[in-house]
Amino acid sequence: MPSTRPTQCTRRTRVRGFTLVELLAVVAMIGVLAALALVGFKKFMNSTRTADARAIIGAIRIAEESHRAETLSYRSCGASLTDWYPAAPTGKKRAWGGWSSHSRYDDWRILNVTADSPTTFGFAIVAGAPGDKPPNTNTSLKTTWPSPTTEPWYVVQAAGDADGDGTFSYLVSSSFNGEIYVENDTE
């Protein structure tokens, strides 16, 4: 016959929750991680703008070399490295084409440089003949151009102010080397 004796359960299981201090610590950690992610995302977005400017400078370089192959000279699209196309950098996006009010619009059309999307950068190109002195750039890097120049040359400079605070990102390239110098790329 089975035993009818009741079993005694002397152990009580204690259900324990989270304390207020533990919950506040978790919330603080999530806040710190979110702040770090936001800073990283902002840098990423600014560097993508620089990537667009690099692509346009690459297109300018190809157009300049094509122009030189046909005419034995490079095409200047401005009087100085601050004659910005499509417009001066202000942090606002502007479409690439259709800026017929630009003083050297016809020169830009002859180069036939296009951009797939609006840009926050302004671009300037100055070209010269052998013996002409290339202009100084707006960067902190002190450029040393060949003196005297023995070949036709061009210098292209891009400037952008992503957040409108007056601090610019600069990209500079020239016919003297195949590199693009970048300053403040995550501005």
Notes on the structure:
It is a single chain. The chain has 187 residues and is an alpha+beta fold. It has one domain. The protein is 32% helix and 16% strand. It contains two helices and four strands. The protein has helices spanning 20-71, 105-111; strands at residues 121-128, 153-160, 169-174, 177-183. It has a four-stranded antiparallel beta sheet with strand order 1-2-3-4, covered by helices on one side. A hairpin with an 8-residue loop joins strand 2 and strand 3.
Query: Based on CA inertia axes, which overall geometry fits?
Result: elongated
Which structural category fits the helices and strands? alpha+beta
Tell me about the biggest sheet?
Answer: 4 strands, antiparallel
Q: What is the overall number of helices?
A: 2
Give the proportion of residues in helices.
Answer: 25-40%
- Count of the domains: 1
Poorly predicted ranges: none
Mean pLDDT: 85
The overall strand count is 4
End-to-end Cα distance, whole Å, is: 86 Å
> Strand arrangement, largest sheet?
1-2-3-4
Q: What is the CA-atom radius of gyration, in angstroms?
A: 30 Å
Helix-strand sequence: HHEEEE
Strand residue content: 15-25%
List the helices and strands and how they pair.
Elements: H1 20-71, H2 105-111, E1 121-128, E2 153-160, E3 169-174, E4 177-183
Antiparallel strand pairs: 1-2, 2-3, 3-4
